[in-house]
Write a structure and sequence with these properties.
445 residues, mainly alpha, 80% helix
């Protein structure tokens, strides 16, 4: 039997022993039973016997494997020495890295500090240059001969103030305040004079005002504001037409005024309203003629005049402003027709008596609209068919009712009835002849 076999046999003997298995498997119940079977002395003796067997086997293993253990111990010593050497190298490498880090960090921090100083010096020098430039341009503002030249100088000053914040510089505070005051006064004056010159169709004054906004690079915004203003005027004029019974109260509003149009046409007390009498219809159509042939015509003429001043002048328009100038007429007309369409549709619920009168008098309304087109004689300013579409159904129903009234309670029409039908049809067609579309629709009734 070999030494390994003896060791294995000893281990198996201990594991299979009933006494030792209790301790090896940690059986608490068996330990309690064991205390009743064996005395403490016997248990200690049994354990001592087992320990002696294990100790003997360990000594045998150490004796048999002495050379191997000694070799491993020797190798462990060498390994410890190698580990110690590597640790030393690592410490020296870390020290070298720290020295290298210091060699890099110190110049970097110095460079960073100098860069920050240089950046601050650059900002300061740029601020001083812009301040000097601001004062130089400001002197030109004081000597500018006209408003247009002032506008160009103000735009240049605005660019300088947008580039850097000059408001914190004490010695420029007074000049900056003066620039803002001049700009506000110039814009207000230009807006007022522009609307007045457009209304009076004064070409030179209009071009000068446009040149002011062009030099300030705000011409595009100015044109948008003009369109919005006229859109508001159109809305107010339509409202006045539908709600004002006294034609003498219908008057053109000064576009440069500051009061609201509704406030200009209404006094204290009850607001004047249209009645349902024949007098009401007469005044309504007078108001509609005023709306189309006076108000709308005036607004359209002013826009045509403005467009002519923009396109046929020496103004150096940018591409965006040129596109806006080319389309300002069509945009204005689109706003006008859209506002009319909306007003006709809303009148059905807001002012039903006006809506009914418009439906029944649609040919007259179309005649007034065609009168405006003829009076303007301007290609783009032509009403679309859909503008009056909301009124057509009511008018066609009226035409159909007029024809039905002739044939009421008549089973076999005679010549007199036929003549009456022809007269009614002729009357309706003669009324609708002002518009080809309406004529076709009346014919189909």
């Amino acid at each position: 039997m070999t030494m390994d076999s003896e060791t294995l046999k000893t281990c198996e003997t201990i594991e299979k022993d009933e006494f030792f298995s209790v301790f090896l498997q940690d059986k608490q119940e068996e330990k309690a039973k064991l205390a009743t079977k064996m005395t403490i002395t016997d248990q200690i003796g049994k354990l001592s016997e087992g320990l002696e067997k294990v100790s003997a086997q360990l000594q045998t293993q150490v004796r048999d494997q002495y050379g191997t253990l000694l070799f491993q111990a020797n190798q462990a010593g060498r390994l410890n020495a190698a580990v110690g050497s590597v640790s030393g190298h690592i410490e020296r490498l870390k020290a070298s890295a720290d020295r290298l880090k210091k060699m890099v960090n110190v110049p970097y921090e110095q460079t960073e500090t100098q860069t920050k100083i240089l950046a601050r010096l650059h900002e300061l020098s740029h601020l001083l240059r812009q301040s000097g430039r601001f004062l130089h341009v400001y002197q030109r503002l004081e000597g500018a001969p006209g408003l247009a030249e002032q506008a160009g100088v103000i735009y240049e000053l605005d660019c300088l103030m947008d580039d850097v914040d000059l408001t914190g510089i004490d010695f420029l505070r007074e000049e900056i305040g003066a620039v803002k005051a001049v700009k506000a006064r110039l814009v207000q004056t230009a807006h007022r004079d522009l609307f007045q010159s457009i209304q009076g169709e004064k070409e030179d004054e209009t071009k000068n005002c446009l040149r002011i906004f062009l030099n300030m690079k705000t011409l595009g915004k100015c044109l948008e504001n003009i369109l919005e203003t006229y859109q508001r005027y159109i809305k107010d004029s339509i409202k006045e037409c539908f709600t004002t019974s006294d034609l003498s109260k219908l008057r053109k509003s000064d576009p440069s005024g500051t009061k609201d149009r509704s406030e200009q046409t209404r006094g204290p007390g009850k607001a004047p309203v249209l009645t349902s009498s024949t007098n009401f219809r007469s005044k309504l159509w007078q108001a509609l003629e005023w709306l189309f042939l006076d108000e709308f015509h005036s607004y359209c003429q002013q826009i045509i005049f403005l467009q002519r001043c923009l396109l046929y002048s020496d103004l150096a328009l940018t591409d965006d402003c040129k596109r806006m100038a080319e389309t300002i007429g069509s945009n204005f007309w689109t706003n006008l027709t859209r506002q009319l369409t909306t007003s006709f549709a809303n009148a059905q619920s807001n002012t039903p008596h006006v809506y009914q009168a418009l439906q029944q008098g649609l040919p007259k309304l179309l005649s007034v609209a065609r009168g405006l087109e003829k009076k303007l004689d301007h290609g783009p300013f032509v009403f679309d068919e859909q503008v009056f579409a909301s009124l057509e159904a009511g008018y066609l129903e009226k035409c159909a009712n007029n024809l039905k009234m002739v044939l009421v309670d008549i089973e076999f029409p005679n010549q007199e009835v036929i003549d009456a039908v022809v007269r009614v049809a002729s009357t309706e067609l003669n009324a609708a002849i002002v518009d080809d579309r309406l004529t076709r629709q009346v014919t189909d009734v």
